[in-house]
Specification:
disordered N terminus, globular, single chain, two-stranded parallel ribbon, 2 domains, two-stranded antiparallel ribbon, 250 residues, Glycosyltransferase, 9 helices, mainly alpha
């Protein structure tokens, strides 16, 4: 618990500082993290070096109306109707249906963790093995035609018998924020070549276009709760990566 208060204190202080001091403070924080946490970061990354990429194309659900490259998830609180098994699902607020399809969510979350950890280890150690493995995951998810995720979330948070996807499903994409930031770090440190960086940047450009123009993205943007906040966080990071100044000013 103390560590959370420590991090919160740093973030609050950094926010209050002038721009001229932020770079200095950022460097000090980086040095502190390296001093305190570098062993754990490297050990964790060493375990992730053993893991091969797992794309969403490894998992399919017969209830999805999308292709194998379309991200698919189902509404957490929706269950089969016990009285009419073949009818549309019914909502049980607050009760998660453990039988709903969640493999794509898990795969995305894991990829996010692996890429972030490997990139951090590369930044600390300068060992190119970490960068190369992070890029391997990134290419599997965002570049390779057979395995990459389509740059949209048309089929997220679906409800059987009611809808094939929803705007609230965009919150599932929150795990793409870490990979988007990692790509920039890898680029700055020379850990990714121009061709792969450009291809990944193109994917996020297309995804940002989808989430700012599609009805699902607009629906999520206009929500005044954690869903709206998740939209803003994603849009800001993807706009930063893709140098979309107009979206950054939104």
């Amino acid at each position: 618990m103390k560590s959370y208060f420590f991090i919160l204190t740093i973030v609050t202080y950094l926010t209050a500082c002038s721009n001229s001091n932020k770079d200095v403070i950022h460097n000090d924080i980086y040095k502190l993290v390296v001093t305190v946490d570098s062993v754990r970061i490297i050990e964790e990354a060493n375990e992730y070096l053993k893991l091969e990429p797992v794309p969403i194309t490894n998992f399919t659900c017969e209830r999805s109306l999308g292709t194998k490259n379309d991200f698919y998830s189902e509404g957490d609180y929706w269950w089969p109707n016990p009285d009419f098994p073949d009818s549309p699902y019914v909502k049980k607020d607050g009760l998660t249906n453990p039988e709903n399809f969640k493999d794509h969510r898990i795969a995305m979350r894991n990829m996010s963790i692996y890429v972030a950890s490997l990139t951090a280890a590369f930044k600390i150690s300068k060992d190119r093995r970490y960068a190369e493995h992070a890029v391997k995951h990134l290419k599997t998810w965002f570049v390779d035609e057979e395995t990459k995720m389509n740059p949209s979330m048309n089929f997220a948070q679906a409800i059987k018998g009611i809808c094939s996807g929803r705007g609230v499903g965009l919150i599932d994409g929150i795990h793409l924020v870490e990979p988007a930031r990692a790509v920039s770090v890898l680029k700055t440190l020379g850990g990714i070549d121009d061709r792969d960086f450009t291809a990944i940047k193109k994917w996020f450009t297309q995804f940002l276009e989808w989430m700012t123009t599609h009805e699902y993205g607009i629906d999520e943007r206009e929500r005044k709760n954690n869903h709206g906040s998740a939209w803003v966080m994603q849009a800001a990071e993807y706009a930063r990566l893709t140098e979309n100044e107009q979206q950054l000013k939104y």
